[in-house]
Write a structure and sequence with these properties.
The complex is a heterodimer.
Chain A lengths: L1 H19 L7 E3 L9 H16 L38 H10 L15 H14 L13 E3 L19 H13 L3 H4 L40 H10 L15 H13 L6 E2 L4 E2 L4 E7 L35 E4 L1 E2 L14 E9 L4 E9 L11 E8 L22 E10 L15 E10 L5 E3 L7 E8 L2 E9 L16 E8 L11 E2 L3 E5 L6 H32 L11
Parallel strand pairs in A: 5-8, 5-18
Antiparallel strand pairs in A: 1-2, 3-4, 6-8, 7-17, 8-9, 9-15, 10-11, 10-16, 11-12, 12-13, 14-15, 16-17, 16-18
Helix pairs in contact in A: 2-4, 3-4, 5-8, 7-8
Chain B lengths: L2 H24 L10 H18 L6 H19 L6 H19 L3 H16 L3 H23 L19 E4 L2 E4 L28 H21 L31 H10 L24 H15 L15
The chains are: A alpha+beta, B mainly alpha.
Chain lengths: 572, 322
């Protein structure tokens, strides 16, 4: 209780300090929170049960799990912590570490412990972790003076979960600041983290810049993914141990909030799963009926639709009839054969149209990829997987989701591609890169029993591009084909579909890939004509019925009045 | 003021106040004998009856019928817990409506009184009400038609058996294990003796902790991606897969299973499931492809040590957890 009071007192004092010295950036210096020695025994117990597996016996970030994780677990020995409220290079406050443990680090293997451990266990383990920092000393008030940054308050007063309603002018101003400070050099022209492929962290391990269009993977998201504060904090404090410096002198006061607003505006608003801290996948991919032929150009307006969920931000009028972009969650294939523990892509976006006139279906597959492969032996690739014998499946039955099984084969449409004139270290290119695409059609009877189809090619990639850290590939195929192992695509039917993706730069090949589970797709028919004439007809019939009711009731009354009929008599 | 109107206000305002202010008081996180939702409902009904009696409002029969009907609607919609599916809700409301109708038609007098406002609306004696009803109803019918014709597609619901019946024996790495009589060879001591021991640190001191450490190492190199660092089925890849990975903390998983069942599940993975358990979409690897037999047993030992559950045995006692 006293601890709590102290904390509240400190809070009040810091507020008072801010109020008194009313200048835009107030920073207050403090000593780091000393280690609470009475907590260490309990903390050790928690650490060795829960944390040691990743962070290691001495806190070196080298537990048994470490080598199979990307990003690697934190090495505590140097006292380097990413998410802080203190200045670059400084030790964190205890409250920062407690928040990290409670909320986890999104986009990494560090889960949120807030609902799992009790408050006192978290405080204890945080204090134990502080003692693992060998190179720094949390008890050294003199040499380890910390400067807690002032972040100001949200100037627009937006609220969670989605923080919508920030004026466009401020977002544009934020973009100007983004350009002026050359954030794109690491984060890429559109913020997909595709700026610099050569970065290393303090320990020499490769590291990539954050993808701003997937803010749910920000380490410092604190399970409040869309809050611009997360970005303001990072601008002001940098991320210790990584190439991310602070920009507290270059970007000040409200400008930080404007950059944050710009960064946040890039992140599509999706409904989030509270337990896993990831967007909820769109398990039904709706292919929209198209009058006449479908445009084979990705840039065509008919293919434009926002990533943002239309239940959160309404879609503008002119693209309201376009197909939805569906979010597909991806994971490493860690089940069979050569397993992939560190996939480079954790989601795809699928948009689909079909045309009765062309008798064909189109699937636009998009995903974020920071850097493409330049090794022809390991091209980048993405594939759509179907049950090859849809007609033979009974009920919910499907082929095995990893490339089929001996009894139930799958039909795989795979596009292999290499960008033209590309080097990963190139500056962002506005027009993007054209891709050299080759399509492979395969039949899978299992991950180790794949065979290329001998029949002539039926799947086409009609358009593709790699631009600002995003791959777009537009697949096309006729609904009906002749091959024995070709999926025949009926309309108005739920068809299982899954997606596979290979990152060439990571030397992914064959079953060493990223994979989704089975989704469903459906070719929606045109809206029935009856939609336009039936409602008025039924309403008109109802009006007639009402008229009849009125007429009948009035007639009955009249008959009572004229004595032609007797009212029901009440008992005396 | 019109007494019918007062009665109507007593109902509407009372409901608003009760539902928003008093209902939360009666639904604490742990309901008691007095503070529970059904008592709340009785209190609300008592309030209605007493207020109407004291003020001598005597609302017309049609209005009383409306009140009674609405009370039923409110009960099934908001009070009854857990909430019932809409098909059941409709069934209940049909019965409730019949009951209300029986009540108003119990004798000719009340029935005539019940009909009076309806007839007056129809023939136009209540001009305003007639206009509203006659215009609103066709529009509603039109909208309902539109909604029913508009094609809507919901992904199909798929059911699966979570714990399928195990086979009598399972063959792993060339050796056949009868599931009923196979025990974990590494369970060399009572698990509870090691509640406060440390993996790694105590691995040299106690053989049991050595096995737990080895099992944990395997777990955190292979299994945590799906089953999670907390063994709660919320690993970093868990959201991708459907069915979602098992939550070992839950009392419905390893706590109620035999270790041999786990051994079979771990060794054979998704592809070893029977059809009713959708083997085609389970991401569980057949671990016999990646792990040795003893490694599988050690992982199982670790899972029980970490969660504090005890495996089910066919001996004298059942499962007991923390």
């Amino acid at each position: 209780m006293t601890k709590n009071n102290n904390y509240i007192k400190r809070l009040i004092f810091s507020f008072l300090a801010v109020a008194l010295i009313a200048i835009p950036t107030t920073v207050f210096s403090a000593a780091p929170d000393a280690v609470k020695t009475d907590q260490l025994e309990k903390g050790k117990k928690v650490y060795f049960k829960r944390c040691v597996w990743c962070h290691g016996i001495e806190g070196g970030g080298d537990g048994p799990a470490a080598d199979r994780l990307f990003t690697r677990p934190r090495n505590f020995i140097q006292g380097t912590f990413k998410i802080r409220t203190t200045d670059s290079g400084e030790l964190p406050m205890e409250a920062d570490l407690i928040k990290t443990v409670k909320n986890g680090l999104q986009g990494s293997a560090m889960p949120a412990w807030g609902e799992f451990l009790a408050e006192d266990e978290i405080i204890a383990v945080v204090n134990f972790v502080k003692t693992l920092a060998q190179d720094r000393d949390f008890n050294d008030a003199e040499d380890e003076e910390v400067f807690v940054q002032d972040f100001g308050t949200n100037p627009w007063g937006t609220t969670g979960p989605y923080h919508l309603g920030i004026p466009q002018a401020d977002i544009d101003a934020g973009k100007e600041i983004f350009i002026k400070n050359k954030c794109f050099e690491c984060h890429g022209g559109e913020g997909r983290g595709d700026g610099n492929p050569t970065m290393k962290d303090d320990w020499g391990f490769p590291i990539v810049a954050a993808d701003w269009q997937q803010c749910w993977n920000f380490r410092g998201a604190r399970r409040d993914y869309f809050n611009p504060f997360n970005v303001v904090r990072t601008i002001a404090t940098g991320l210790n141990g990584t190439p991310m410096p602070n920009f507290k002198d270059q970007i000040k006061g409200e400008d930080r909030w404007k950059v944050a607003a710009f960064v946040n505006s890039l992140c599509p608003r999706k409904k989030m799963d509270k337990l896993t801290a990831k967007p909820i996948p769109d398990f039904l991919i709706q292919s929209v009926y198209t009058e006449g032929p479908v445009s084979p150009k990705i840039d065509d307006p008919s293919w434009q639709s926002p990533d943002t969920d239309d239940r959160i931000v309404p879609v503008s009028e002119e693209i309201a009839a376009n197909p939805k972009r569906h979010y597909i969650a991806m994971a490493g294939q860690i089940t069979r054969g050569k397993r992939n523990f560190d996939p480079k892509t954790d989601n795809l976006w699928i948009t689909s149209r079909w045309s009765a006139e062309e008798n064909a279906v189109y699937y636009l597959v998009e995903y974020h990829l920071r850097f493409m492969s330049d090794d022809p032996e390991y091209p980048d690739a993405v594939a759509i997987q179907w049950p090859a014998k849809l007609q033979d499946l009974f009920g919910a039955e499907k082929p095995y989701f990893i490339m089929g099984d001996s009894k139930k084969p799958v039909d795989i449409w795979k596009a292999n591609f290499m960008p033209k004139d590309y080097s990963a270290t190139n500056a962002p290119k506005d027009g993007g890169y054209q891709l050299d695409v080759s399509v492979e059609e395969m039949t899978g009877h299992g991950f180790d029993a794949l065979s290329a189809k001998e029949s002539e090619a039926k799947v086409e990639v009609v358009d593709s591009i790699f631009k600002q850290g995003r791959v777009k590939v537009l697949f096309k195929r006729s609904l009906v084909t002749e091959g024995e192992f070709d999926v025949q695509i009926p309309t108005e039917t739920f068809i299982p579909v899954a997606f596979l993706q290979w990152a060439g730069r990571d030397k992914e090949k064959d079953e060493h890939m990223a994979i989704s589970t089975w989704y469903y797709t459906i070719l929606k028919p045109a809206l029935p004509q009856s939609l336009y004439y039936m409602p008025p007809i039924i309403a008109a019939i109802f009006v007639c019925f009402q008229g009849w009711l009125v007429w009948m009731t009035k007639r009955t009354r009249k008959m009572y009045d004229e004595g032609k009929m007797r009212r029901d008599e009440l008992p005396k | 003021m019109n007494k019918g109107l007062i009665s109507f206000l007593v109902f509407v305002v009372g409901l608003a106040v009760f539902h928003n202010a008093i209902f939360p008081i009666f639904t604490p996180s742990e309901p008691g004998w007095i503070l529970n939702r059904y008592v709340y409902f009785l209190v609300f009904v008592a309030y209605l009856i007493i207020t109407n009696l004291i003020l001598r409002l005597k609302p017309p029969v049609a209005m009383t019928a409306l009140f009674v009907w609405s009370l039923g609607f409110y009960f099934y919609k908001s009070i009854l817990f857990p909430p019932i599916p809409w098909t059941l809700f409709i069934t209940y409301m049909v019965m409730w409506s019949i009951g209300v109708f029986l009540y108003v038609s119990q004798d000719p007098e009340t029935f005539r009184e019940f009909r009076k406002p309806i007839v007056k609306t129809i023939v136009g004696e209540y001009k305003f009400a007639q206009i509203i009803v006659m215009i609103a109803m066709p529009i509603l019918v039109g909208f309902a038609t539109y909604n029913s014709i508009y094609p809507a597609y919901q992904e199909p619901v798929e059911l699966r058996t979570v714990h399928p019946a195990p086979p009598a024996t399972t063959k792993v790495h060339g050796k056949t294990y009868p599931l009923e009589s196979t025990d974990n060879p590494f369970r060399i001591d009572e698990q509870d003796n090691y509640k406060d021991s440390f993996p790694f640190l105590d691995a040299d001191k106690h053989e049991y902790m050595k096995y737990v450490t080895e099992g944990g190492t395997i777990f955190f190199q292979n299994c945590h991606y799906c089953h999670g660092d907390q063994l709660n089925g919320l690993g970093m890849f868990s959201h991708v897969f459907n069915p979602t990975p098992a939550n070992f903390i839950d009392p419905g998983t390893i706590a109620m299973l035999q270790e041999a069942f786990l051994f079979w599940r771990v060794a054979k993975g998704g592809p070893g499931l029977p059809n009713e358990s959708t083997p085609w979409s389970s991401a569980m690897p057949p671990w016999e492809e990646h792990l040795k037999t003893e490694e599988i047993w050690k992982v199982i030992l670790f899972e029980y040590w970490y969660t504090g559950w005890h495996p089910r045995t066919f001996g004298t006692e059942g499962a007991e957890g923390e």
